[in-house]
Every structure is written in C-alpha cells, then in structure tokens.
C-alpha cells in the first residue's frame, strides 16, 4: 500500500508537471518567436508578439520566476524595438536627403515626358493628365504599406533602381523610395502610445532638411546643371512629403506642407532673383526659364501653388530682354563694321531671288533691267532685317509655356522689339555715322539703306501679327517705332554729310595762296578752286540715289559754306592790304563758283536758286571792280538797290585794306599822281560809308 500510495503520488506529480509545462511551453515558444523576430529586425510583428505574450500568455504562468524575468524584460524589449525602429527612420531620412536629387530628377523627367505626350499625342490639358499620372503612382504604393517582408524591412529607404535613361518608360519618382521604415516606425510609436513624439521628431528633422535643400550653392548661376541640381533636390523633398501626406494618417498634414512650401517658395524665388541677375548669356537665361517652367509644372502636379514662380518668370523676362539687347548690339555692330557700303551687285536670277527672299523689296523698273544689275541698298539692309526677325523669334521662345494670352505675348514682343529698334539699333547706326573716318559715300549709302529699312517696318508688323495672331488694330496693341529710328538715323547721316562736305571745302580752302599785293591781272581761276569744284562735281554725282531734297540741301549747304568761307578769306584781319589785281583774281574764282552753280550739279533747283548762295560776294566784288560808289551811296537802303546785299561795314572793311597800296607798290612815277587822286577818292568814300553806318545805327 505504501508503494502504491507513493506511485500514485508520483503519477499525480507527473500529471501536474505536464499540465504546468503545457501552460509554460507556449510562453517559451512565444518568447523564442519574439527573439527571432527581433534578430531579423521584424520589429512591428515583434511588437505584436510582445503584446500577445504580455496580455495572453504570461498572466497564466505569472507565479513562476522565469515569467517574472520575462515581465521585467518587456519594457526593455519595447524600448529596444522603439530605438531600433527610430534608428531605421534616421537611416531612411539620411538616405532620402542624399537621394532627393535623384528622386526630383525622376519626377521632373516624368513631368517632361507627360508634357510631351500631352502636346504631341493627346492634345489634352496638361494638368489634368498629370493628376491622373499621380493617382496611378499612388496605386503602386498602397501595396507596399503593409509589407513586412525581410527584404523591405532591412532596406532603409531607397530601392536599387538602375538609371535607365534610354528606356521608353521613366520609373515613377516614388517608385524609387521604400517608405516601409516610416510606416513601421509610425505604427510602432502609435502602438507604444508615443505617436505625437514621433510626429514632432519627423517634422522637425524634415524642416531641417528643407532648409539645407533650399540653400543654393554659391556658384549655381555658372551653369544650368547648378540650377537643375537645386530644383531636383527641392522637387525630391516635396514629392516625398506629398506621398507621406497621402499615405499616412496625420503624420504630416496640409497645414504643415503649406507652411513648408511657403518657406520653400520665398527662398527659391529669392535665390533665383539673385543668381539669375549674374547671367549675361541669353541662351542660359532661356534654358533656365524652361527649367523653372518644368520645375513649376512638376510641383503643380502634386498640388502645390506655383503662381509666384510664373510671376517671377515675368521679371526674368525683362532681364532676358536686356541680355538679348546686349547680344544684338554686338551682332549689329559686326554687321555695320563689316559692310562695304556699296549697292549689292547681282549677276543672275538666283542671286536676285536670294536677296529678295531675305528682304521685302519690289522695284518694277529694276526687274526689267538686264543682268548684271545692282540693288540700291548694301548688304547690311537684308542682314539687319533678318536679325530683327531673329530677335523677335528669340523673344517668342521665352513666352512659350508661361500660360500667357496671345495679346500678352504680342505686347511683350512688340515692346522688346521697340527697345531693339529705338535703343540698340539706333545707337549702332549713330556710332557708325559719327565715326571719324566715315566717308561721304558711306553716309550716302546709310541714308539709302535707312530709307529702305523704314519702308520694311510694315512687313515687321505683319511678321509679328502672323506669329501672335493679334491684329495690329486691336485695342492697346503697341505700335513699332522703327520708322522713327530710321528717320533719326537718316537725319543724323544727312547732318553728317553737310558737316563732312563743309570740312572737305575747308581743307581745300587751306590750300588757297593769294598774293593780295599783286598788280598783275590773272586770266584763270586758282588751281585750288578748280580742284575743289571738280571734287564737288564728282561728289554730287554720287548723290543720284539720294532723295532729291537731301541732295539739294547738301548742294545748297556746300555752296553757302563755300561763299561764306571765301568772304571770310577776303575780310580776315590777317589780310591788311590788297590790290585791285588781287580782287580781279578773287573775282575769277567767284565766277568759277557761279559757273558751277549754274551748271546744275544736282537736279531740282529752280533757275538761278543755287547762284544766290554767291550773291553777297558777287555784289561786293562788282562794286569794287566797277568802282560804282555813286550808285551804291545814292541807292542805299532802297529795295531796288543794285548792291542791296552789300553791307556798308563789309564795304568799309575791304576799302580800308585798299588804302596806301600805292606806297607799297613799286609803280612808275607818272602813275603816282593818279594813285594819289585815287587815295583821296578812297578817303572820301570811306568817310561817306562811315556816315552811312553811323546814321544807320542811330
């Protein structure tokens, strides 16, 4: 019985032990599973296992010492899971900071691809299509949120996607990013009751990253790649935040995103204003504008307001216009410097058509002429005309994709073109006209050229109308000021011709070498004057293509200047005495001038109009040579006076020079009495002239 009793006791103990072990084994298995999950970094399942262990299994065996050890370890395990998941999050944040450039590049590439499709194939509104693309992208991510595979959990942010630029399909920007570390960490902190701590930490870290991303490199303005990298990082940052906004419940909210975007917008615009102001290459400014448009369009797809970026592009447009004007100033300068200022010769129909194709020119008379023949203008006319059109095209390029109305584009092009004409081209022409070594032939050709360019302005108006589809009669349409520019240049060239001619006349007059004390009577005009008249004849022969009024004005101006200069030569203070013989020689020179005026060097003058330039000299010389003082003194002041143009002061000045010449001349004795009589006569006339002058002044 004792043995049986002992056996039954052992059986009961064994049975009780088995029952207790049956309760303990699941706890141990669950704890073992927890350890395995911790080792394989499956932290969210480990947390779920920990919950089951704590609330379901351990209470059943809580009186065992090993259970107490487990219970004591649970807070440590929770903290360990929390720390490890936070470490994963930090790795993720560091990784996306480094890879923002790649994420943004992919997003912008996708936006560019979508825009090309919209423009070429679908012809649908750009924004609508892109929103659809965004929705498709989100479908990809919804399948990843609950992913707990070892591979995805071990990855800390960026999937290993090769850069396949040549492939037809560009991977979605967010396809490059594994967001599971964020989701896991968020779930873990939510389960642990520390969601707010997690949210605050995440937002704080991302704000810091945003400030780093928005800090532009100091040399960003030097190349387009500098701007591209800057934009890629910003786009990459906001693509990630936008995805977090839409795939987590409250980790970030719209207010937080808007606040970040406002900061980003202000800093980006400030950086672009600063760096773009350093740019002097219009091609780089144009590329930058296209990049900014793509940057804005990409972010607009994700719901970010970008109107301020387009407003800033209008500011950059003004800078672009200035860089264009500087570039075209150089182009015009090269064209004008390299021109030969000679009419364009053409020897065949093909050459003729080529020039007419470059510049709108019609002349029925010229078309009838046989080859070879010449256009009236030089090569700078078609070249300048085509460069103005190129400038208009360059302005149009900037207005593309700015979402401007055709009226706004038309206004922008016209205003920029007006600046090109009234400032850049006008200055270039004025510089050529004012050059020291400019010749009369070049000035004549410039007048002809500007006349034809002025006529072409209506074709430039039509050209702008054709590319903008805005009729010139539309209200508020800016008119081109090209006609004013070319008129001003022409007037400047005309004035320069008059000045140049006068300078040439002065150069000839410097060669004048009169012997004012000669007693010999000459029989031909002075050599210097013969050369001067020959020069004037050949010069006015070149003026045949000039507008009639210009040629006539130049001729009249030259004759007046010549007459005035000759008068000055006769009356200058250095000539203290002169003889009648010297006056006779001077008279021959004036007759040569009058003969030139009568010959009609420039057509269009009525009768003796040109001769009137020398009327003052003619009447003065006639008075002295004919010694007709009685007529002069008797008729002075009457409208019908024969010597109406002779001023008594001028007559007295010349008369004073004829005094005492007899004493200086070695004349035969028998003539001295006559000379004395003549001297008395001169004194008498001089006295009467003084009386005329004093009575006239009184």
UniProtKB/TrEMBL annotation:
GO terms for cellular component: exocyst; plasma membrane. Keywords: Exocytosis, Transport. Signal peptide: none annotated. Residues 2-108 form the Exocyst complex component EXOC6/Sec15 N-terminal domain. InterPro entries: EXOC6/Sec15, EXOC6/Sec15_C, EXOC6/Sec15_C_dom1, EXOC6_Sec15_N, EXOC6PINT-1/Sec15/Tip20_C_dom2. Residues 308-657 form the Exocyst complex subunit EXOC6/Sec15 C-terminal domain. Residues 142-167 are annotated as: Disordered. The keyword Cell division does not apply. It comes from the Eukaryota. GO terms for biological process: Golgi to plasma membrane transport; intracellular protein transport; vesicle tethering involved in exocytosis. The keyword Cytoplasm does not apply. Belongs to the SEC15 family. Component of the exocyst complex involved in the docking of exocytic vesicles with fusion sites on the plasma membrane. This is Exocyst complex component. The lineage of its organism: Eukaryota, Metazoa, Chordata, Craniata, Vertebrata.
